[in-house]
Amino acid sequence: MENNRPRSSESSLSPLSGWPVLIGLVAAEALLITALAQLDPNRNTGWIVLGTAVGGVGFLLTLVGFFVVNPNMSRVMVLFGRYRGTVRTDGFWWINPFTSKHKVSLKAHNMASQKIKVNDQVGNPIEIGAVVVWRIADTAQAMFDVEDYEEYVDIQVEAAVRKLASSHPYDEHDTSADVVSLRGDTEQVTGELQVALGERLERAGVEVVEARISHLAYAPEIASAMLQRQQAQAIIAARRQIVEGAVGMVQDALELLKAGDVVELDDERRATLVGNLLVVLCSQESAQPVLNTGSLYN
């Protein structure tokens, strides 16, 4: 059941540049040290201790506020349990020291799913695997709407691949010709996989850049039998093509004999000639000539 909680949405945050803050921090510490150095240690011990403590705490807190954003990286900012925004601009920045800064990579991630065994649409056990290229599109959803977005992607990819494999036959010979097969309709299958992953990973703010089937094969226990069936189908298809070509050649030969008035053929002689030509054209062995010294009718 879909969670009714509103989805998080990324918002941009513009922090202060870190360089002016760093210069101001150094200047403030220099002034504090100068002021403390001018005090008399015998008369102003309390002020020296207090100034040193305040300066040290302020210096440490200010240092905590500095952070760096590298190219193709981002920082998700959370202040006292509330989302404040995301910094995507690379550079040296400063923000409230009490703000939590979570790194989220914006780079493209390339993952290869494990080879999983599943039954296809007609029940044949097959092995299938996929390669998926993805990246974070919404950092707020990735951080707050799922527990671990990388693990979430791994699990959803496997679930999508399993559903895809069970929705199509392995080969077009396993069912009617108008059904999309995993082996024969690669582009359509990968398109379905990418759309299905996009819908599943939208909750985590993940964009699917590309999805491809990387491994597809029959399971080992039926691979040998399926190979024999494919070989038989290939032989039948080749034989059918040979017969169709031979019939066409016989028709052409009969028409040429008739047009050239080479010989008059009655039905019996025509049948004998057709049979001999088909044997010669369809046979896998070389024809052996036979000399007939008598009549066809003797």
From TrEMBL:
The keyword Membrane applies. Keywords: Membrane, Transmembrane, Transmembrane helix. Residues 64-230 form the Band domain. GO terms for cellular component: membrane. InterPro entries: Band_7, Band_7/SPFH_dom_sf. SUPFAM superfamilies: Band 7/SPFH domain. Its main location: membrane. This is SPFH domain / Band 7 family protein. Gene3D superfamilies: Band 7 domain.
